[in-house]
Write a sequence for this structure.
């Protein structure tokens, strides 16, 4: 693992000089921050079950920070550990920088260490001291390469014991976990275990995911979403421009976001392509895969009548799981694979044997659906699950499935003289391209503030909380800070064949302002070339260009006024 960056680009050199702006309440340091506790909270659903799982940390109050004097924070000398968990998101290094600066501002003797390689580093007691000179090379940069990340889940009693042992041996007073909904579910579980064991340690989460599905009234957006959607929008905008230049291809672009369509909707707002598929709407309307194809074909035919045999269609990565009959099939497959994991490991070597066994366990209805799918996708649906028990939707080439089905449909219509156009297609998948870009000015300041704010939570003795920074449509100095109990975000879901407490994913609200605005515009986008070309992220220049954040956030904030 490299401790030094030997070569840097001209842009990186300039980004190292960028100074994130802190919210006014944090500017003097955490010694001048007072915590105000609000009313007790409850989980978003399944209150009885969640309370049973979190007997010691359920019902905690929301905390908001205001200016005030808190001299006790100056007297404490603490050791804090930070870990990066899950996939990369732009701004992770700035969370670490915010933690480091906040700790050192409170007391120069405070220490920050980083567990290496994600949560597995905690279990292995693998860490390094965060060094000011080395950290300086990572400020305002993308990636998680300073301490790297991983997807190990800490959820068993044995792992909780190892975690406590690691924190004790490393003399750690507080642990900050930077991750998404599953990682922060583990944050809550570790906090509960340590509280149960009377361990005097603070466990704090930071909301990270480019998917945008970790949010609520207080967590207005997860970090990395702003940067990633700007990167994808540049790429899609380039494709839109190529489309009207060549005027001979339909481009189908699948965008990352396994459990929600936030990325697809935001990139749609930024580029205004002809078709934007929203998984949540498809689920709500109970559209079959065939109906989804019919809706796309309808637009293709309308455009062909005007001699426009070209267009752009955005497809959310998790689309397949939103289609009701597919959703039912995947749930059944998840249970079969979980219940027979040992059997597959011990007795089945070929994909065909696995397929035959799984099919023998399906109902007739689901078996018919399975047989109607292309062989490739059927096998992909039975592939090994991720550590959270989810199907690997990034491996399912949904855009190519749609293209294949559209082609068949158009051939049938052409035979009936109902379609006279030409259909040539190009498939794309944009995912990893957006995870490690230089964070936008918004994400650079937001992540820095989240880290600094986490220090305030720690020095005030809070545990089982998520760092929140809100009022994000305003300038950074006007942002509001505090913490929310992670348990208030939780419900119970079926994972690996068992009911488990997890943070509830925030899907697109079909009654919310962003989706309603999209509905107003999409018919126009379908038949015209309303394409917008956002270009690359702007780090310099006027604030109305370099300081803008997502259109989704703007619509949501306007709704509240």
């Amino acid at each position: 693992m490299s401790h030094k960056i030997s070569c840097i680009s001209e842009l990186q050199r300039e980004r190292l000089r960028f100074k994130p702006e802190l919210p006014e309440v944090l500017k003097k340091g955490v010694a001048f921050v007072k915590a105000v506790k609000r009313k007790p909270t409850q989980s978003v659903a399944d209150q009885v079950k969640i309370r049973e799982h979190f007997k010691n940390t359920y019902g905690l109050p929301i905390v908001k920070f205001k200016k005030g004097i808190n001299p006790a924070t100056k007297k404490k000398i603490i050791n804090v550990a930070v870990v990066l968990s899950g996939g990369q998101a732009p701004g992770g290094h700035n969370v670490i920088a915010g933690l480091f600066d906040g700790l050192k501002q409170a007391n120069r003797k405070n220490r920050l260490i980083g567990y290496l390689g994600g949560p597995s580093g905690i279990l292995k007691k693998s860490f390094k001291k965060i060094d000011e000179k080395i950290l300086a090379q990572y400020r305002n940069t993308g990636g998680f390469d300073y301490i790297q990340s991983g997807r190990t889940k800490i959820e068993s009693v044995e792992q909780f014991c190892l975690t406590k042992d690691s924190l004790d041996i490393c003399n750690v007073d507080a642990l900050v976990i930077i991750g998404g909904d599953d990682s922060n579910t583990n944050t809550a579980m570790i906090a509960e275990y340590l509280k149960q064991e009377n361990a005097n340690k603070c466990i704090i989460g930071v909301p990270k995911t480019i998917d945008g599905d970790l949010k609520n009234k207080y967590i207005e957006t997860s970090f990395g979403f702003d940067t990633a959607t700007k990167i994808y929008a540049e790429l899609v905008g380039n494709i839109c421009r190529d489309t009207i230049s060549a005027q001979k291809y339909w481009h189908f672009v699948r965008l990352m976001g396994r459990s929600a369509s936030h990325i697809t909707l935001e990139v749609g707002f930024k580029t205004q392509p002809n078709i934007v598929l929203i998984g949540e709407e498809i689920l709500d309307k109970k559209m079959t895969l065939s109906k989804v194809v019919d809706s796309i074909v309808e637009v293709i035919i309308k455009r062909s009548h005007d001699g426009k045999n070209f267009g752009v269609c955005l497809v959310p990565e998790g689309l397949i799981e939103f289609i009701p009959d597919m959703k039912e099939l995947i749930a059944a497959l998840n249970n079969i694979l979980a219940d027979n994991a040992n059997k597959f490991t011990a007795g089945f070597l070929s994909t065909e044997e696995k397929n035959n066994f799984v099919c023998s366990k399906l109902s007739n209805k689901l078996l018919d659906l399975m047989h109607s799918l292309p062989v490739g996708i059927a096998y992909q649906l039975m592939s090994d699950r991720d550590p959270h028990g989810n199907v690997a939707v990034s491996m399912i080439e949904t855009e190519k499935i749609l293209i294949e089905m559209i082609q068949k449909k158009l051939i049938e219509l052409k035979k009936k003289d109902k379609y006279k156009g030409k259909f040539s297609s190009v498939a794309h998948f944009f995912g990893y391209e957006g995870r490690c870009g230089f964070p936008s000015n918004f994400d650079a300041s937001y992540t820095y503030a989240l880290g600094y704010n986490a220090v305030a939570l720690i020095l005030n003795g809070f545990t089982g909380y998520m760092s929140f920074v809100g009022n994000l449509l305003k300038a950074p100095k006007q942002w509001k800070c505090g913490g929310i109990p992670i348990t208030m975000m939780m419900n119970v879901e079926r994972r690996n064949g068992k009911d488990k407490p997890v943070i509830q994913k925030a899907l697109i609200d079909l009654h919310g302002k962003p989706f309603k605005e999209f509905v107003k515009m999409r018919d126009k986008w379908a038949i015209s070339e309303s394409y917008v070309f956002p270009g690359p992220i702007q780090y310099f220049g006027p604030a109305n260009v370099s300081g803008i954040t997502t259109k989704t956030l703007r619509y949501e904030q306007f709704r509240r006024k």
